[in-house]
Design brief:
Blueprint lengths: L53 H9 L5 H16 L8 E4 L3 H13 L11 E5 L27 H8 L3 E6 L3 H4 L9 E2 L3 E2 L15 H8 L5 E6 L5 H7 L2 E4 L19 E6 L2 H11 L6 H4 L10 E5 L7 H16 L3 E5 L9 H22 L11 H10 L1 H4 L6 H7 L7 H25 L4 E5 L23 H7 L3 E9 L2 E8 L5 H15 L15 H6 L6
Parallel strand pairs: 2-3, 2-6, 9-10, 9-11
Antiparallel strand pairs: 1-3, 4-5, 6-8, 7-8, 7-12, 11-13, 12-13
């Protein structure tokens, strides 16, 4: 499938004001600086409104500094500039051909005094495993689903539209949400190719929501949506320098999303700011009264006992240094830090049972999903037939890595088997009662903090993902438990970002976001991408790698 990128050839004719509180004066078209500059003059940094955060962009729309139509056009120009040309991030898989038309209608509604919600006119990108009624397929990056057009919006998309959002397009992803091969390479799909990390282009964009992470960091939309089964919102947000929020499982409806596990799957926002994620949560959950944005308070950490997961810090000096600075910021924001030294004891079979749970639910869920697709458009109707299709089209689908996880899932029994039921019971007890909840209650703390992960490794098409071990953080237990987890940037090391995690118990979502917000307001550690081809392209690193001149 060719990318359906409806990209305008003309440059944007508006220069958007950087400060959302100030109204910009129109610039005559003959004097306007084009958004898409000649390659030799481009530094790839966004300017004006699109350089801002989602709430800043919403303010600019509400104050008539920019129209939604002009904003969508600017994003289309920027996608052309750096996603399909320039650094070729390959983070956007498909553009909504009706995005400009939708934006124009929303502008007309605003002019008539009809504002739908906080996201009115705000362009959003969705991970391409989320179904919409737009003229875009839902592919999971797989050739077999290239003509899979949804009949209805997924509920989260319906919520975004009800708040006035423009669905700009779909992002590339690790194919099948990274549940195809044990030797996979994060960010690769047969339809979209390899996603690149905008901070350092040869660095791993991580997790299955890699396109949403790269696109959000590179200012290709005001906000993006990812999905997570085990780390696929948190990890790409961590390595791309974004705020990522994985809600309590079930809080964001999962209908219309290509599944892996109904026990662990959830969609969530990925944005430049906690406020932006909260605004998207209000919309995606279709909550009355904006509970997530209204929960945010820069003083939310004052007097709050925070559990510091010392056992999950890891041994990486650079990450530890940034995490120690994050702890200092938490103290400065008023938090009371409580060190937690010992990891909860888990059953020896936990890892195996967790993996088996996913394989059981993937087979069951995917077969049910495929049964609801159009048989004239999606001819593979079962996991078995997906595997056969991939084998037939191995030159495209299996050229870099195999489908070992699919093969292993295909032989699993039904969800009525005792083995499956026992796996679910063990995983949930170990991660909830004996995991996150135990840490919270026994230490009398409101939330847990730890590094969100490692510094991104290099993309490796020979060995696949090659992450350092042990992995810092506590993302997997939070994912297995289905509990809320936010990551917020805590800085970067040699241009590679890393975040700090806030983990709570079930349905503590608003409070977790509030704590994350208070930290963010204190720290302000998000860094913009530099689009370096390699880490060695940094001037200081390059100089250090040269021999000493006598």
């Amino acid at each position: 499938m060719n990318k359906k990128l409806l990209l305008a050839t003309s440059a944007a004719t508006l220069i958007f004001a950087s400060a959302c509180g100030e109204k910009s004066e129109p610039v005559a078209s003959q004097d306007a600086e084009p958004l898409v500059k000649p390659a030799a003059l481009v530094d790839f940094q966004p300017t004006g409104v699109i350089a801002g955060t989602l709430p800043e962009i919403a303010v600019a729309l509400n104050s008539d500094q920019v129209s939604s139509e002009a904003l969508v056009q600017a994003y289309l120009d920027r996608i052309a500039l750096i996603d399909t040309a320039g650094p070729t991030l390959q983070s956007v898989l498909t553009i909504n051909p009706d995005a400009l038309t939708e934006a124009k209608k929303l502008d007309q509604m605003r002019a008539a005094g009809n504002v739908m919600g906080a996201l009115h006119g705000v362009p959003i990108l969705l991970k391409d495993n989320i179904g919409t009624v737009d003229n875009m397929p839902t592919t999971a990056g797989a050739l077999v689903l290239k003509d899979n057009y949804a009949k209805v919006d997924s509920p989260l998309v319906a919520g975004l539209r009800a708040s006035g959002a423009v669905i700009l397009g779909k992002t590339n992803l690790s194919q099948w949400a990274n549940f195809r091969s044990e030797d996979s390479m994060s960010g690769w799909s047969a339809l979209g190719g390899q996603v690149k990390n905008p901070h350092v282009l040869d660095r791993n964009p991580c997790g299955s929501s890699s396109g949403s992470g790269a696109a959000g960091a590179a200012s290709l939309a005001a906000g993006t949506v990812g999905t997570e089964t085990n780390g696929s919102i948190i990890c790409p947000s961590n390595v791309n320098g974004l705020v990522g929020f994985k809600p309590t499982v079930g809080l964001v409806p999962q209908q219309g999303i290509i599944p892996i596990s109904h026990t662990q799957d959830t969609a969530g926002p990925m944005t430049k700011s906690v406020m932006g994620s909260a605004m998207m949560m209000d919309a995606m959950t279709q909550s009355e009264g904006n509970p997530y944005t209204l929960s945010l308070n820069k003083d939310a950490l004052k007097g709050v006992r925070i559990g510091v997961l010392k056992f999950a810090v890891g041994s990486y000096a650079a990450v530890n240094q940034l995490f120690n600075a994050a702890l200092a910021d938490l103290k400065a924001a008023g938090a009371v830090l409580v060190d937690i030294e010992e990891r909860p004891v888990s059953p020896s079979e936990l890892g195996l049972n967790s993996y088996n749970l996913l394989k059981y639910e993937f087979k069951d869920g995917l077969n049910k999903y495929l049964a609801g697709t159009d048989p004239d458009k999606v001819t593979a109707r079962t996991l078995t037939e997906i595997i056969e299709f991939n084998n037939t089209n191995a030159a495209l689908e299996l050229v870099l890595f195999d489908q070992s996880i699919m093969d292993a899932s295909e032989i699993m029994d039904t969800l009525e088997s005792d083995d499956y039921k026992q796996a679910v019971e063990m995983v949930l007890k170990a991660s909830r009662e004996d995991g996150v909840d135990k840490l919270l209650t026994e230490n009398d703390v409101r939330v847990l903090v730890a590094p969100s992960g490692v510094l991104a490794s290099v993309i490796d098409p020979v060995n696949g993902d090659n992450w350092p071990s042990p992995w810092p953080g506590y993302a997997s237990p939070a994912a297995r438990a289905g509990y809320p987890h936010a990551t917020v940037p805590m800085g970067a090391f040699r241009n590679v970002p890393v975040g700090v995690s806030f983990i709570g118990t079930a349905n503590q979502d608003a409070e977790v976001l509030a704590f994350a917000y208070a930290y963010e307001q204190q720290s302000q550690k998000r860094v913009a991408p530099n689009y370096l081809p390699t880490a060695a392209a940094d001037e200081d690193i390059a100089a250090a790698m040269k021999p000493y001149e006598m």
